[in-house]
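Predict fold of ECF transporter S component; 174 aa.
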Amino acid sequence: MNAVTTAKESTKTRTLVINALFIALTVVATMFINIRLPIMGNGGLIHLGNIPLFIAAFVFGRKTGAIAGAFGMGLFDILSGWALWAPFTFIIVGAMGYVAGLLAEKMPGKKVLVFSVAVIVAMLIKVVGYYIAEVVLYGNWVQPFGSIPGNVMQVVLAGIIVIPIVARIKKRVI
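Predicted 3D structure, encoded as tokens:
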């Protein structure tokens, strides 16, 4: 085994461990730190699972953000008895993590502004994605409006927590 092969294997192992860690953090933050909103229809769920998702995307990039979001929150749906939602969550939240990480990687400028734009775009993906998912699942164009406040609040809350700290985390980790 030469040094190049060993370095590649070490990088693959590190990536695997980081991805697994953020999947687990996303599941735990979604499962155990949540509040169901008493709003019409589905109402929405406020949880802190978007915090590890955004940290993964901003610190480790779009692939880790997508993996943490898709698998972490998809697994939450399965473990919580909402398996019907898992395919939608996998796509929607995976897209959130990917796009947030992509914007953080590619956009020039002050990181606070870049991270803020990435959070806003991720929020739009979540709101539109879950609205469409609920239309499909409920066969109703009105009822899904009830979950929009919860979706907005959980992403805004995550942004408020993550944006001030993620640049510091990134400096220490990488």
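The helical segments are 3-32, 50-60, 62-79, 86-106, 111-138, 148-173.
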